[in-house]
Amino acid sequence: MNSNKFLNIIEQSDIGMHKEYLHQALRPAIDLLKYNEAELQLGCSRFGGEPDLPVGSDWPTYGMNPYRFLGQINFAEIPPNEGNLPTKGLLSLFVADDYPNYDCYLEVFEEGYIHGIYTPELTNLETLISPNPSIGNAIAIKFSSTIDIPHDEYQLKDWPFTDNQNDIYTEIRDSLHKSSAYLLGYPSHYTLAYDPTPGEEWCSLLTIDSDDDLEWGWNDGNKLMVFIELDRLKNLDFSRLMSDAG
Description:
By secondary structure, the chain is an alpha+beta fold. The protein is built from four helices and 14 strands. The protein has a single domain (3-245), classed as Roll (Hypothetical protein YwqG fold), CATH 2.30.320.10. The strands form three sheets. Strands 8-7-6-2-10-1-11-12-13-14 form a ten-stranded antiparallel beta sheet. Strands 3-9 form a two-stranded antiparallel ribbon. The protein has a two-stranded antiparallel sheet with strand order 4-5.
């Protein structure tokens, strides 16, 4: 959905008096859609499975523990958008998938729980074999540009909506997304009573839901939200990411 269509919907709704407020709050977002029919190619965007990294790369670890591969985003596959995402390169994301016999345990909100590797050129890639015995399914993903508005009153100052208007607002917000997995936009969740964004200098990078097919379960079936500092995103520096779940 584009901003003009969204504003027309707002005008015709029972929250039309807040059109300008919502116009100011709009953010670009990119929905991530499972593409089960696609054949997995080297360097393609996907959830799960094993990563494609430069030849000779070592599997990333925290402490002595191997990370679990979460997925990879080939930015060249994303349609033109108003976000500050790169236009090329491959972002590989890993998560601290803890087991009882591991020597290091990381909470989802701790630095290092999410590990990112950005590969600017895709000319020398190979698929790394996971050291974990179970890697889960691999599913290709495709992209759909959209827009987003705040998830709740904790994400924006001077929230103007009454209790009666909140249901209308939520229904309209949900209609903006074709998937519960998306890049940019605002983080969304099921349980939190606060804004999970680490600070004003941070933005939402990725929001994904728990998923049985991919063997993902964030805090008992909630969503995982990943954040990056705005300056690092502009500089293509994915070496420091933060996360939360709820």
